[in-house]
């Protein structure tokens, strides 16, 4: 399949299922953690440390991208590890700290469906897809009190932070900030934006739409 044809198919699937997460660059993603000497900062919170490790471990395992709707088991349902979308990186990582977004988002949507974005002509929650949609995750994080200000300064981001973006023209995307340093003093991000899970210097690559930090309480 030609590259442009594959990209077109993914864009169509994004518009139908609303998961976003796709972008394409001329040379594909650069996994800086493998290409350059790694500099790390200490993570003193063991929960955050496990979260970051679980996300980074997906690099090399998730090598594809597929936004197609899938029927999942419940709870702890997942698509095959070799594929997925940007939200699946976080979903898989958070299960290592005993937080199943599939279950938690579904239960929260059952209690307050009208509080969530109404972008997909849904009449009720769907545990197969709701937690994989970035706008739903953003609302879930807001309702948990995790939202903090967006900043254009790298010093305001910490390991374990969650960031959302809009990839032009209008694709929603999400990733997890790691404890590895990119160029200058920027922390890297682990995410899947169309080529499988990678860790690279993407914090300010696109316009941010959300910044979240898990509660320390």
Overview of the molecule:
The protein is α+β, with helices and mostly antiparallel strands. It has one domain (3-212): endopeptidase domain like (from Nostoc punctiforme) (endopeptidase fold (from Nostoc punctiforme)), CATH 3.90.1720. The chain has six helices and six strands. It has helices spanning 3-17, 32-35, 46-56, 86-94, 101-111, 134-143; strands spanning 39-40, 162-167, 171-181, 187-192, 197-200, 207-212. Strands 1, 2, 3, 4, 5 and 6 form a six-stranded antiparallel beta sheet that branches. Helix 3 crosses helix 4. The longest helix is centred in the N-terminal third of the chain and has 15 residues, at 3-17. The N and C termini lie far apart (49 Å).
Helix content: 25-40%
Named at the architecture level, the CATH assignment is: Alpha-Beta Complex
Helical run tally: 6
CATH class type? Alpha Beta
Tally of strands: 6
The span between the termini is 49 Å
**CATH superfamily, please?**
endopeptidase domain like (from Nostoc punctiforme)
What pattern of helices and strands is seen along the backbone? HHEHHHHEEEEE
Low-confidence stretches: 1-17, 22-28
Average pLDDT taken over every residue: 88
The radius of gyration is 16 Å
What structural class do helix, strand and pairing data support? alpha+beta
The portion of residues forming beta strands comes to: 15-25%
Fold-level CATH name: endopeptidase fold (from Nostoc punctiforme)
Domain unit count: 1
